[in-house]
């Protein structure tokens, strides 16, 4: 699903501090009790630092996204790769998964059955409540990026308000790593409710692990000149 594309997620008290500091230092430091395990440099001028925290449930993992201007998005998923909570930055808005989804997203079902459909609600601290319907399907194609073998998915989703008005929708491809239980962005199209789709590609380019050059970097490397010179800018979530 679109965990790789959009915002969402219980919050550690030090999350905001740990997320704001790296933009100056150029090296990501997770909150206390957390450990960074991977940095992903992606197309579209984005770098993501992935980390896990001992205070969270087993299988939970966080992602902190940075562009040329610094941090812009923070999210947490669970073992089934469900959105649990997220933060958009400047201004800070927290969004959480509503309890008891009609059809919860399931990474396990996607792996076992080759398809997973979902229906769930989201709420943020501005009072906005929305509903998301969509699905993921394994295409059967594998891709190798920076030496890492990923499985390709095809996805589509629509997010509406509680009256059914379309707020945003997206379709396209993503990639998953079965053992990591993670989604990564791919080539897709995005409609922010205007009725026309904008092409996007946030595919990973480099996977960087502890001890390797560029690990914990907060400086994106790819497509940054193109992003800065193009209008309109793609959504940062």
TrEMBL record:
Any signal peptide, and if so, which residues?
A: 1-25
Q: Which domain of life is it from?
A: Bacteria
Alphabetically list the UniProt keywords. Answer: Signal
Q: Please give the name of this protein.
A: DUF3298 domain-containing protein
């Amino acid at each position: 699903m679109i965990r790789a594309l959009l915002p969402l997620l219980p919050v550690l008290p030090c999350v905001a501090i740990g997320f704001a500091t790296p933009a100056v230092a150029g090296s990501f430091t997770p909150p206390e009790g957390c450990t960074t395990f991977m940095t992903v440099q992606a197309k579209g001028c984005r770098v993501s630092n992935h980390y896990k925290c001992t205070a969270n449930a087993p299988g939970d993992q966080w992602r902190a996204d940075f562009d040329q201007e610094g941090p812009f998005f923070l999210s947490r998923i669970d073992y089934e790769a469900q959105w649990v909570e997220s933060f958009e930055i400047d201004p800070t808005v927290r969004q959480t998964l509503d309890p008891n989804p009609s059809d919860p997203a399931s990474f396990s079902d996607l792996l076992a059955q080759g398809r997973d459909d979902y229906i769930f609600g989201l709420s943020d601290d501005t009072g906005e409540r929305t509903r998301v319907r969509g699905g993921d399907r394994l295409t059967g194609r594998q891709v190798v990026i920076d030496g890492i073998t990923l499985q390709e998915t095809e996805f589509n989703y629509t997010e509406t308000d509680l009256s059914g008005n379309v707020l945003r929708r997206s379709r396209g491809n993503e990639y998953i790593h079965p053992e990591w239980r993670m989604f990564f962005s791919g080539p897709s199209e995005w409609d922010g409710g205007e009725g026309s789709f904008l092409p996007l590609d946030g595919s990973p380019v480099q996977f960087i692990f502890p001890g390797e050059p560029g690990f914990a970097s907060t400086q994106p490397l790819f497509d940054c000149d193109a992003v800065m010179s193009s209008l309109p800018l793609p959504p940062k979530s």
